[in-house]
């Protein structure tokens, strides 16, 4: 794209004058941010329009997801348009600090963690690859809560990204639809966000629905009698898009959550059907030729009975014909096997909130029940296990598999576990439906944007084709023995570490040594992710350093960042524990320059962009079999951090790509866990036999550490020692500590360390979401590149 500096400057000045009545010279950072955003929006307007027009003629994929964790848009949009450097330069000439402008933007944090961020990376890849794909979700007024620490405990405050409106959304009143619930109806008002691909003219769309009351329409006219009641209705309707549920990997069976799901799914399907009919009229059998819908986990699975309702009730299609259309249209991605996450709805709630959808779901259930009776006449156990409605609960995953033509897991190991264990019955019935789609991340945000120094250097070495084709990075292997290159990537890492140090000094007032090893675990707080194992090792290390001050040791900084679901007591207790240990370690003058523990407050996309480039060690230490994939692991790898991990999720593939000798792999594997479970696991065995472990576990209850009277440390202690240590924290402790020691030794050899870094970067190609999206496009959706002129 050609950049005309004078023209941009003129446009920006005009906007500032029109909108804020201010000159460029006197404008505040917020005003400049807004004006710049609006200028970008007008700059892409025509291409956006052309793209929509072009896509309407072809098969499109629709990504239904209750979460899109987008983060900031300005920097990413400027980079993808190829005008970032130019804008920065021209602001500099005006003595305006670009970083300050960027910092005016709030994260669009409409997601919890991996699942929502994956959806965001997919949007970037779809647009970059010129694929006709659109996202659908809810325009939550409050995204994931902001986290603060008080006495080392997490406190939640509402997130308010829409406080001053949003420059990246366009309201589309002409596309408003009505969503009918059992006893009320609400208006669904769409807002479109442009998704700007890298180095292409195509502009894709993310459509977010906002809930409004129908009484808004003529409040005070037909409701004159009951004005207060009418305003109450308004609040009830608007509640639907008020707030994102802050649970990562646990099911929340609440009425409002069901209303949210039906709200966005029904609005999206009505929208899709309206557009389909505009082009194809009533040829509904053609729906699967033009529409593919991906269900991002079970949260939007109510789309299956809803499309049945639209086809049968509204359009008069025969049930049997409608069912064939539905199956060919939907596909479903599973993101977890944790039992507490598997979504089930009480039929009473369904009946109350969406009565017609309940009837249709029962119809689907009965149809499948009959099929099962014919398929397995002598296996009533199996028939019962596979019922969609069981004991008054609707099993959403079963409904998803039955109503889809493809079902995928998100990493090789995860998909194998689905096929051989969790979904074994289903795989035996429908082997042709199952396939793997290993997750990926967009290199535009997670390298090009977040690590410009490493990006430029890579481009200097192998050219810039990696930005669109990440497997190009393989070419870096020719420099594995080139000390100049190895020194340079080490130096860049130090530079990124210094930037993070500066950020943490400014925001949290902590002082960190950039020469120390940065060992980082950032992700949602959950028992299965085992932040507890990490902090136990740190506490043990502290005790060793106290006992043996002359021990050979490379200074290390342990960095954590994690939000806990507000109702998840144990997770909150672990946050307190990390901060408790941090206070002790960081406050100990004897330890000072050796060991430091940092808990980063309010971990989010924008902070993640500073953390991944600065990490030496990527902690991926979940209990084997529990982490479906992980995607943070990929962002670390791409930025030259070495994985310290179990053979779980995508770690398996990371180790395979880079070579296991270039990672630190430890702990029990899935098979080892099976075996130990069979044999009978007794956590008292490692507790009594592993040097130092008893002291660490006992510190929870012997007064060495303090939960300030909440009782949560005793609870954690009991989970480990009396309730079987479900996640094998104690069992894996020794092997984990051994790897930590190895790392501490290996880091001293700069050249061999940098070689490992380069090996990881060079082999990160597989983990681009471009690769993932092309697989979805070719093997599930059957959509084709559709470039606008
Ligand atoms: C989530 O982030 C993930 C799974 C969920 O299951 C829910 C949420 Cl909010 C219902 C994560 C997985 O834990 C992670 O392993 C995976 O990489 C990510 O989804 C994307 O697939």
UniProtKB/TrEMBL annotation:
It comes from the Bacteria. It holds the Pfam family Phosphorylase. InterPro entries: Glycg_phsphrylas, Glyco_trans_35, Pyridoxal_P_attach_site. Its cofactor is pyridoxal 5'-phosphate. Allosteric enzyme that catalyzes the rate-limiting step in glycogen catabolism, the phosphorolytic cleavage of glycogen to produce glucose-1-phosphate, and plays a central role in maintaining cellular and organismal glucose homeostasis. It catalyses: [(1->4)-alpha-D-glucosyl](n) + phosphate = [(1->4)-alpha-D-glucosyl](n-1) + alpha-D-glucose 1-phosphate. Its EC number is 2.4.1.1. Keywords: Carbohydrate metabolism, Coiled coil, Glycosyltransferase, Pyridoxal phosphate, Transferase. This is Alpha-1,4 glucan phosphorylase. Residues 84-111 form a coiled coil.
């Amino acid at each position: 794209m050609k950049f005309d500096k004078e023209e941009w400057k003129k446009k920006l000045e005009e906007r500032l004058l029109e909108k804020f009545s201010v000159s460029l010279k006197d404008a505040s950072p917020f005003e400049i941010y807004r004006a710049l955003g609006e200028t970008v929006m007008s700059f892409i307007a025509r291409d956006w329009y052309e793209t929509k027009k072009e896509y309407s003629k072809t098969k499109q994929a629709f990504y239904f997801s209750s979460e899109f964790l987008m983060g900031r848009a300005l920097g990413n949009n400027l980079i993808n348009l190829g005008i970032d450097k130019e804008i920065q330069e021209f602001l500099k000439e005006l003595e305006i600090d670009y970083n300050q402008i960027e910092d005016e933007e709030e994260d669009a944090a409409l997601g919890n963690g991996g699942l929502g961020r994956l959806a965001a990376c997919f949007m970037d890849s779809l647009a970059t690859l010129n694929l006709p794909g659109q996202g659908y979700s809810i325009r939550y007024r409050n995204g994931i809560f902001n986290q603060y620490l008080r006495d080392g405990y997490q406190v939640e405050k509402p997130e308010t990204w829409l406080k001053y409106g949003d420059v990246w959304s366009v309201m589309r009143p002409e596309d408003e639809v009505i969503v009918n619930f059992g006893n009320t109806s609400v208006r669904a008002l769409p807002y479109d966000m442009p998704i700007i691909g890298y180095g292409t003219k195509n502009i894709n769309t993310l459509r977010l629905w906002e809930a409004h009351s129908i009484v808004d329409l003529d409040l005070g006219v037909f409701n004159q009698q009951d004005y207060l009641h009418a305003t109450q209705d308004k609040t009830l309707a608007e509640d639907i898009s008020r707030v994102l549920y802050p649970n990562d990997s646990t099911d929340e069976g609440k009425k409002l959550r069901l209303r949210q799901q039906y709200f966005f799914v029904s609005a999206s399907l009505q929208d899709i059907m309206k557009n389909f009919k505009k082009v194809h009229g009533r040829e509904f059998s053609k729906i699967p030729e033009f529409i593919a819908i991906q269900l991002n986990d079970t949260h939007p699975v109510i789309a299956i009975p809803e499309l049945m309702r639209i086809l049968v009730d509204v359009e008069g299609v025969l049930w049997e014909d409608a069912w064939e259309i539905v199956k060919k249209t939907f596909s479903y991605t599973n993101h977890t096997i944790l039992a507490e996450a598997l979504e089930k709805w009480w039929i009473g709630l369904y009946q109350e909130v969406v009565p017609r959808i309940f009837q249709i779901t029962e119809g689907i259930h009965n149809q499948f029940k009959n099929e099962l009776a014919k398929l397995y006449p002598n296996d009533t156990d199996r028939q019962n296990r596979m019922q969609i409605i069981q004991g008054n609960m609707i099993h959403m995953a079963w409904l998803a598999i039955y109503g889809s033509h493809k079902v995928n897991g998100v990493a090789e190991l995860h998909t194998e576990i689905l096929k051989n264990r969790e979904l074994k019955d289903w795989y035996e019935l429908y082997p042709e439906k199952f396939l793997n789609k290993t997750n990926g991340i967009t290199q535009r945000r997670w390298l090009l944007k977040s690590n410009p120094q490493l990006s430029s250097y890579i481009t200097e070495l192998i050219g810039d084709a990696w930005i669109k084709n990440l497997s190009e990075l393989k070419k870096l292997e020719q420099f594995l023995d080139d000390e100049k290159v190895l020194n340079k990537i080490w130096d860049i890492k130090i530079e990124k570490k210094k930037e993070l140090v500066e950020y943490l000094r400014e925001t949290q007032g902590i002082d960190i040594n950039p020469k120390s090893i940065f060992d980082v675990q950032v992700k949602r707080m959950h028992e299965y992710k085992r932040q507890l194992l990490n902090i136990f090792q740190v506490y043990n290390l502290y005790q060793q350093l106290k006992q043996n001050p002359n021990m050979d040791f490379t200074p290390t900084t342990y960095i954590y960042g994690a939000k806990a679901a507000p109702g998840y007591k144990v997770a909150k207790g672990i946050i307190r524990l990390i901060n408790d240990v941090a206070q002790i370690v960081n406050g100990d003058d004897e330890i000072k320059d050796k060991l430091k523990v940092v808990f980063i407050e309010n971990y989010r996309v924008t902070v993640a962009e500073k953390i991944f480039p600065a990490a030496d060690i990527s902690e991926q230490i979940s209990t084997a079999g529990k982490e479906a994939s992980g995607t943070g692991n990929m962002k670390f790898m791409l930025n030259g951090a070495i994985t310290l991990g179990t053979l779980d999720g995508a770690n398996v593939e990371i180790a395979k790509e880079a070579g296991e000798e270039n990672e630190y792999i430890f702990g029990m594997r899935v098979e080892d866990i099976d075996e130990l479970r069979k044999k009978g696991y007794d956590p008292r065995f490692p507790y009594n036999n592993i040097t130092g472990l008893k002291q660490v576990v006992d510190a929870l209850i012997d007064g060495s550490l303090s939960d300030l009277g909440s009782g949560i440390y005793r609870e954690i202690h009991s989970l480990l020692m009396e309730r079987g240590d479900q996640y094998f924290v104690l069992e894996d402790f020794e092997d984990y500590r051994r790897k930590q020691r190895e790392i501490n030794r290996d880091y001293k050899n700069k050249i061999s360390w940098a070689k490992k870094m380069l090996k990881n970067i060079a082999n990160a190609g597989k983990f681009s979401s471009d690769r993932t999206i092309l697989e979805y496009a070719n093997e599930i959706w059957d959509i084709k590149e559709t470039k606008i002129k």
